[in-house]
C-alpha cells in the first residue's frame, strides 16, 4: 500500500513528508507563468533580481482571503505538483494529510483543498500545524508554538496532556521573514554607502547575491558578534564592511516585538510554558536573546518539516460524505518523526527569582508592601495607588498587591485585566523583584523593588 503523504503549508518552509520522514522542504518562492522555466518551480534565486517573474505571496493571499487569492490558487496547484515531483512522489494520486499554519482562515481551506485535489492529492484531512508539532513532544505543561512565514508572524497556545488541543491563535499579517531580510538589506546598504560609497541595492545582480547570503551572515554574526560583508562591483572591485550582531537585531526589532506581543498575549502572567519554535528562526540574529527574557519556560526547537512528518504518520482514514475535517486536537504520541530530534533548553531565570519585593515604586515614591496590601484603582476611590480618573481600562478597585504566606501576590479584581511583564494575570500572580505591573491604557506602570537586600522583608502593617 502506498504510504500517506504529509504536507505543511508554511510558506517560509513548505514541506512534503512520508512515513515520518521529510522528503523536501523549501521556501514557497516560485516562478510565475510565462518565464523561461515552468511556473511553480523554485525561484528564490530570482526574487530580488527579477521580481516580476517570481511569486512569494500566493499562499499568503490564499490564507488571508485577499483579492489576489484567485490568481494564487492556480499557482499553488503548479507549485504543489512541482514539489511532489521533486520529492519523488510522481504524478499518481496520493493520499495526504495537510498541516496548516495559523495564518489560514477556516474558509481559506476550501481553496487549499481545491488546489491540493487539482495537484492529484487525495486529502484525508487538515490538521492544525501547532497541534501536530506538539503531539509527539511529550509535554506536561502548556505550549505556545511560534511561527514566522514570509509575510506574517503568529503564535498558537496548545493544551497538553493525553490529548493535545489547540486553544487559541494570534496572527499578525503584513510582515515576516522577508520583512526582516529587507531591513537587513537596508542596514547593509546604508553602512556600505557610508563607508565605501558603493550601493549594493543599485545593481539587481549584486542585490540578489547579498539577499541569498543573508542567512549565512546572520549565523556568522550570532557566532562571532559581527559578520563581514564582501561584495564585488560591476568592474570586479571588491567592497567589504562589518555588520555587528546588534545591528541585525535592532533592524529586525519590529518583527521580533510583534512575535513577542503574540506570545505574551497568549501566556498567562508568570505561567511556565514550553515555547516551541522552528530551529531555523533561532538563526535570526537577536531573536534568541529576546526569547531568553522569558522566565521559567522551556525552549524547544524543531526542524523544518516537523509538522509535515507528524501529519504523514496520521491514520489513513476514509473521508466520509465528502467532508474533509480540520483536526484541532490529537492524541499525544511517542512516535517521533525520523531525522534530527528537537533541541531543548531552559530559558532565562526570572528576574529577581528568589527575591521578594519589599516596595512598589510609583510616581517617584517607594510604597512598602504589607500583609494588609496596597490597593490600586481609579482616582477618587479609597485606594493607595490611583490612576487618573480619565484613564481607560481601570476599575474603581482594580487590583491588590499584598504579602502572603508564599510571597508577594497580585490579586486582580478588575473587568479589564492586569498585566505583569506584559502578560495578563489570570486571577492572581506571584510577584518578584524587578517585575512590572501595568493597568489601564495608558494607565499606570508599577515596578516591584527590593530594598535592604535579597531577603529583606517589609515591616508588617
Describe the structure.
The chain has 461 residues and is an alpha+beta fold. It folds into 2 domains: 5-174 and 258-346, Nucleotidyltransferase, domain 5 (2-Layer Sandwich), CATH 3.30.420; 359-449, Tumour Suppressor Smad4, CATH 2.60.200.20. 25% of the residues lie in helices and 31% in strands. It has 10 helices and 28 strands. The protein has helices at residues 58-64, 69-86, 109-118, 129-134, 177-196, 204-224, 245-251, 253-266, 287-291, 306-311, and strands at residues 5-9, 14-18, 21-26, 30-31, 54-55, 94-100, 121-128, 143-148, 152-159, 163-173, 226-232, 238-244, 274-278, 298-302, 325-327, 329-331, 343-346, 359-362, 365-368, 374-378, 385-387, 397-404, 407-412, 418-420, 423-424, 428-431, 436-439, 444-449. A 7-stranded mixed beta sheet has the order 16-10-9-8-13-14-17. β18 and β19 (365-368) form a beta hairpin. α1 crosses α2 and α2 packs across α3. The longest helix is centred in the middle third of the chain and has 21 residues, at 204-224. The chain is globular and about 75 Å long. The termini are far apart. Residues 454-461 have low confidence and may be disordered.
Short summary:
With 461 residues, the protein is an alpha+beta fold. The chain contains 10 helices and 28 strands.
- Would you identify the CATH architecture of the largest domain? 2-Layer Sandwich
**Residue share in β-strands:** 25-35%
Percent of residues in helices comes to: 10-25%
E-strand count: 28
Question: What is the structural class?
Answer: alpha+beta
**Strand sequence of the main sheet, in spatial order?**
16-10-9-8-13-14-17
> What's the CATH C level of the largest domain?
Alpha Beta
What's the gyration radius in Å?
25 Å
Overall body shape: globular
Q: Tell me about the biggest sheet?
A: 7 strands, mixed
Work out the count of structural domains.
2
Distance between the termini: 75 Å
CATH topology of the largest domain: Nucleotidyltransferase, domain 5
Amino acid at each position: 500500500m502506498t504510504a500517506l503523504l504529509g504536507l505543511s503549508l508554511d510558506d517560509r518552509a513548505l514541506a512534503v513528508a512520508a512515513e515520518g520522514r521529510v522528503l523536501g522542504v523549501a521556501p514557497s518562492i516560485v516562478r510565475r507563468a510565462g518565464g523561461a522555466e515552468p511556473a511553480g518551480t523554485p525561484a528564490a534565486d530570482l526574487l530580488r533580481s527579477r521580481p516580476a517573474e517570481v511569486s512569494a505571496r500566493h499562499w499568503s493571499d490564499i490564507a488571508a482571503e485577499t483579492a489576489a487569492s484567485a490568481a494564487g490558487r492556480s499557482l499553488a496547484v503548479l507549485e504543489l505538483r512541482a514539489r511532489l515531483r521533486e520529492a519523488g512522489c510522481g504524478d499518481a494520486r496520493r493520499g495526504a494529510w495537510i498541516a496548516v499554519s495559523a495564518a489560514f482562515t477556516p474558509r481559506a481551506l476550501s481553496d487549499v483543498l481545491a488546489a491540493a485535489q487539482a495537484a492529484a492529492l487525495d486529502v484525508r484531512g487538515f490538521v492544525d500545524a501547532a497541534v501536530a508539532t506538539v503531539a509527539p513532544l511529550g509535554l506536561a505543561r502548556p505550549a505556545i508554538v511560534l511561527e514566522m512565514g514570509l509575510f506574517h508572524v503568529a503564535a498558537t497556545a496548545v493544551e497538553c496532556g493525553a490529548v493535545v488541543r489547540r486553544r487559541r491563535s494570534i496572527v499578525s499579517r503584513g510582515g515576516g521573514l522577508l520583512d526582516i531580510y529587507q531591513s537587513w538589506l537596508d542596514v547593509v546598504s546604508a553602512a556600505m554607502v557610508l563607508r565605501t560609497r558603493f550601493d549594493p541595492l543599485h545593481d539587481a545582480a549584486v542585490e540578489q547575491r547579498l539577499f541569498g547570503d543573508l542567512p549565512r551572515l546572520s549565523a556568522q554574526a550570532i557566532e562571532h558578534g559581527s559578520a563581514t560583508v564582501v561584495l564585488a562591483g560591476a568592474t570586479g572591485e571588491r567592497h567589504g564592511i562589518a555588520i555587528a550582531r546588534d545591528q541585525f537585531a535592532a533592524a529586525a526589532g519590529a518583527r521580533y516585538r510583534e512575535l513577542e506581543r503574540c506570545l505574551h498575549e497568549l501566556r498567562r502572567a508568570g505561567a511556565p510554558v514550553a515555547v516551541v519554535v522552528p530551529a531555523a528562526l533561532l538563526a535570526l540574529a537577536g531573536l534568541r536573546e529576546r526569547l531568553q527574557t522569558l522566565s521559567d519556560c522551556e525552549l524547544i526547537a524543531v526542524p523544518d518539516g516537523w509538522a509535515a512528518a507528524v501529519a504523514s504518520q496520521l491514520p489513513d482514514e476514509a473521508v466520509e460524505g465528502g467532508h474533509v475535517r480540520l483536526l484541532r486536537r490529537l492524541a499525544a504520541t511517542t512516535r517521533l518523526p525520523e531525522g534530527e530530534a528537537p533541541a531543548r533548553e531552559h530559558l532565562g531565570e526570572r528576574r529577581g527569582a528568589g527575591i521578594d519585593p519589599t516596595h512598589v515604586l510609583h510616581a517617584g515614591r517607594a510604597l512598602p508592601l504589607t500583609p494588609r496590601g496596597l490597593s490600586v484603582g481609579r482616582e477618587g476611590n479609597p485606594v493607595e495607588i490611583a490612576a487618573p480618573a480619565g484613564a481607560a481600562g481601570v476599575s474603581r478597585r482594580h487590583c491588590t498587591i499584598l504579602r502572603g504566606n508564599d510571597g508577594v501576590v497580585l490579586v486582580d479584581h478588575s473587568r479589564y485585566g492586569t498585566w505583569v511583564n506584559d502578560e495578563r494575570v489570570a486571577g492572581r500572580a506571584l510577584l518578584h523583584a524587578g517585575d512590572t505591573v501595568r493597568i489601564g491604557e495608558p494607565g499606570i506602570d508599577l515596578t516591584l523593588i527590593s530594598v535592604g537586600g535579597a531577603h529583606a522583608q517589609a515591616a508588617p502593617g
